[in-house]
Amino acid sequence: MSSGDKPKRDDLHNGDEKVIPIVEEVATVDIVKRTTGRTRVSTRTEVKTTPIEENLETYGVDVTRVHIGRDLGPDETIPSTREEGDTTIIPVFEEYLVVEKRLRLVEEVHIRRTTKSEAVHFSVDQKRQVADVEHEDFGTKETKTEIE
Question: Which helix (H) or strand (E) holds 146?
Fold first, then answer.
């Protein structure tokens, strides 16, 4: 008997023996792709303004010319630039003719450092990206939107 044939009534009895046909069902599964919905993700950039407070220091100088008008003696050493506290002193010389040549200290330039502190207030824009997710279910005609 072939596998596709049905057993005949006479085939069920073979003399004293009874023949019981065995039947097996085979299940098959097919996968069918079907669009049931749609998801859309979009991003957007948000701008957040953040106030900032900070102390700013500005460094400057005050220049003062101090008239000296003193001749230096022949054995006197030439003064060099020096520091006195927060002031830098730079000597300025000139040569002038007399019967002999002498060095005269004409002036000193005093440069004093100053510090000015002021509180400033300003705003800074900060950017942040946000994802918006929208899902549309074709079966229920329902749309869900998730916004962070």
Answer: strand 142-147
What's the alpha-carbon Rg for the chain, to the nearest Å?
52
- Residue 56: partners with Cβ closer than 8 Å, 6 or more residues away: 117, 118, 120
For the chain, 148 residues long, give each residue's pLDDT as a single digit of tens: 555 555 555 555 556 777 788 888 888 888 888 888 888 888 888 999 999 999 999 889 999 999 998 888 888 888 899 999 999 999 999 888 767 777 889 999 898 888 888 988 888 888 888 888 888 877 776 667 666 6
Write the DSSP assignment of 42-106 as a string of letters. EEEEEEEEEEEEEEEEEEEEEEEEEEEEEEEPTTPPPPPPEEETTEEEEEEEEEEESSSEEEEEE
